[in-house]
Amino acid sequence: MSFYDNGRQVLNNLETYxxxxxxxxxxxxxxxxxxxxxxxxxxxxxxxxxxxxxxSLDEFLKTYLDNTTRLHHPGYLAHQVGIPHPTGALGSxxxxxxxxxxxxxxxxxxxxxxxFFMVNYxxxxxxxxxxxxxxxxxxxxxxxxxxxxxxxSLANMTALLAARNHLDxxxxxxxxxxxxxxxxxxxxxxxxxxxxxxxxxxxxxxxPLATDSHGRVIxxxxxxxxxxxxxxxxxxxxxVANACATGTGLYDPIxxxxxxxxxxxxxFHVDGxxxxxxxxxxxxxxxxxxxxxxxxxxxxxxxxxxTPTVCxxxxxxxxxxxxxxxxxxxxxxxxxxxxxGFDFLGxxxxxxxxxxGLKFFMTLAxxxxxxxxxxxxxxxxxxxEAFDYISAQPDFEVPVKPESNILCFRLKAPDDVQIRxxxxxxxxxxxxxxxxxLKGARYLRMVFMNPxxxxxxxxxxxxxxxxxxxx
Length: 471
Ligand SMILES: Cc1ncc(COP(=O)(O)O)c(C=O)c1O
Fold this sequence. Notes:
By secondary structure, this protein is α/β, with parallel strands linked by helices. The chain has 17 helices and twelve strands.
């Protein structure tokens, strides 16, 4: 069968999959064992025979799709993964087919030009000076910069490496120094501590900032944390704030923290992996007011910007910081050449890199800014409506009024019941929730990512939970 015929089969199957998912005809999640799936998918035999085409491809696809977690299902409320726009998914497909590994311009001029454009687009949203597309003007005047990375964890690590280099440019060559510290609220995403471990800063050198009972940074206590660290001879690599926190979806007071960091000369990193998308909404962007005071910001397009996984942006206020951190030597890549574009290679960790900008661009260009804004507003509104509804139920409790589209709640029952409820919902297959710990107690957690999810689905969820016999 031809590429075209196989492709048509893939599209037909995906269309059926999409309709079954939004129509709730199939379970939102179906978990079989690895052993069963290996057998059902017939993996070994396909590789042996090289027969994945025509009917065999069709059969494989049906089994594969039946064993996916259906993000398009309105009962999908679990994790911060975007519901991909179909045009964005076509971007992934085109990128996979053309395979333009665009870190050097000559390996993907269109892909690199789009990444450049998308980085600038985000820089402008923050209020920073974009990169000059006339490459001969690069670094001839102060401007900002950025790079798209394979995910927010890598974007956070890239930001912390730039911050470390800014603090002490000898570390890259000599190895790390034991007196350096990151200040971050405990509610920071685990990728911050992980990056500290990997980069040699050390997980134990991520010191917690004082926070309120909901885990938000208390601005009036920043000075105490700072003085305590400095008093013990620590040098501060960066202070990290959440926009928003993974567990609760709450935003730290960005503007006030920015003032503090700027006054002390501390690198200010805003982790906006999830909630940085608030910049796209006139109403929600007050939540990230003052974000321009940061030195680095990350935003995951594959979370609230409807882009297929993965595509994160790392943005830095001063382009020199990326240049000085990541310029490297590799004779086969870095040499004098005619280059009408820009090599992203010297701006981050990755060498071979997918054309991440294409799916990001295609998603936004298919939706248009107004629809992205409406989507963000609607999901943030739905979280507030769900909060009002669930808070009014006598057998449920909701610990935090949401600021974004993340909402934690629980039955008035012990921790193990929350876990059993989640397990039963997954088994039953109408709703898929996540769970988190807050202040030592276990909660169910919903993230409203799906534009098809409405308040009536949440009312159905509450009724379904009440019907679970374990309660
Ligand atoms: C606040 C925050 N930062 C970073 C990350 C990590 O992003 P990624 O999953 O793209 O690596 C997440 C993921 O949920 C997050 O919520």
